[in-house]
Amino acid sequence: MSEPMLALTGVHTHIGQYHILQGVDLTVPRGELTVLLGRNGAGKTTTLRTIMGLWHASRGALLFDGRDITQAATPDISCAGIAYVPENMGIFSDLTVRENLLLAARAGEPDTARLEWIFGFFPALKKFWNQAAGTLSGGQKQMLAIARAIVEPRKLLLVDEPTKGLAPAIIQSLIAAFRELKAMETTILLVEQNFGFVKSLGDTVAVMDDGRIVHSGRMDELAEDRDLQQKLLGLSLDTHQ
Amino acid sequence: MTTTPPAATADAELPRLRLDTPPLLVLPILALLALPLIGSFPTWVTLTVAGLAMGMMIFIMASGLTLVFGLMDVLNFGHGAFVSVGAFTATLVLLPMQGWMQADSVLMNLTALGLAIALAMLVTGALGWAFERIIVMPVYGQHLKQILITMGGMIVAEQMIHVVWGPDQIPLPLPTSFRGVILVGDAAIEKYRLIAVAVGLVVFAAMFLVLNRTKVGLLIRAGVENGEMVEALGYRIRRLFVVVFVAGSALAGLGGVLWGLYKETLTAAMGADIMVLVFIVIIIGGLGSVGGCFIGALLVALVANYTGFLAPKIALVSNILLMVAILLWRPQGLYPVAKR
Description:
The complex is a heterodimer of chains A (241) and B (340).
Chain A: E1 6-15, E2 18-28, E3 33-38, H1 44-51, E4 59-64, E5 67-68, H2 74-80, E6 82-85, H3 97-104, H4 112-121, H5 123-127, H6 138-150, E7 156-160, H7 168-183, E8 187-191, H8 195-198, E9 204-209, E10 212-218, H9 219-224, H10 226-233
Parallel strand pairs in A: 3-8, 3-9, 6-7, 7-8
Antiparallel strand pairs in A: 1-2, 1-4, 4-5, 9-10
Chain B: H1 22-38, H2 41-72, H3 79-94, H4 98-102, H5 106-136, H6 143-165, E1 170-171, E2 181-184, E3 187-190, H7 191-213, H8 215-232, H9 237-263, E4 265-266, H10 270-285, H11 290-310, H12 315-329
Antiparallel strand pairs in B: 1-4, 2-3
């Protein structure tokens, strides 16, 4: 088995006086889509922010592609090859769609072929290329946030609840985009509560509760095991759809 | 990569992007309202040009400060130190070159002034770098400490000016070519005020171009809106902040030279004195907004000039009243920056 793209070992994170992550052990296999599930407040977003260095782990270790990033600064982590799509999308509202993508393309102007590939999923971005991002709809902003993360090849994508509040039609284009990224063997760590969205996408799954990983395994096994769903999440995952 | 993904359907028409014009209209409305109250067109022209000149100088001093606040949430109450230091540094060139300043040659006047401005901006830029590293950096994210330590820094700078240049006021006469007035009909317009307006416009245009046409400018605008996301894209926002801090300090130094020539007298406290107006301007404009800062500076200066003529007794509070009125209309300023 090849070395995982990302491995968290006994990670603790404090935010002020609050002890949010309480020993997270998580492995993200290379070239797979890993889904992080859990109820609100379980620590999923904190896990992603800790990986990005936006909050630093107070204990434990984070290894990315064999490199220790536990205390690395956010720009270094980003430059090492991790792209991050936060829950609030982090779009620069005062900048145009083009300017948002230009900033994400650190090598200079975005590659034209790759842009056309992205426009294939998200044609709205091409249509509103010179429009201020703040005027886009919620779904279009989410497309822009994901486009920004993939405008250049990255080793790992961290995506926080991309379907939150989106219409089913837009979710379908996100599914298509993630399938394409999977086909390209991009490693993805996806936080999501919409099980219908991730059930067919995920290769591996980890379930969080109270700042710890309480289950990890193959997604298809969890999807088929209703008792396990009941035990881990308190209800059948089908009801999350 | 494959090339035939399904098309997304979320490409409905967007609302058309509209220029937020009401704040822009406030300026001409204010000027037009003042005209019948003043009663004399030449006097109105003189007051309006004086207000525009004063506004441009305040804008130059305030523009860096508003970006510093927007980018790193830093309250720098010591910004006035750069104004004073800039003005006093200019005397190191202007006083020894009195002959050039008093010569009846535009070229010699401009050369002396250009050298003085270059030195002032260089020194205040370097001072800004040291100020940020030594005084501001240890108190990132701590507003109360920022206020106390930056005010302390300004007091230290003022005392250092006293040590170097002495406690007395220093006269700073205008270059010969910039003295006098231009008559437009019956209206007398001071030449220097026109020059101040021109310099202010050049600075605004330069800032506009940098912020909108360069990647550094994009990063600054993005950083003002969401610094955390800029870092997550791989850029070191603190380095960017240092650049902005140094540029803002150098601009304050330029503003100090212009302001000193406008007043024709330098005091160590001149920077601290103008800071009240500078803070009103950046609050009115919307913290972090350069465009708002520009409109706010012109508004503040026009109101100060008009009320100084019409009702001198309320001139001192006129800008506070203006700020209250603007904030009642737009609580986050004329052009609020979209924040995360």
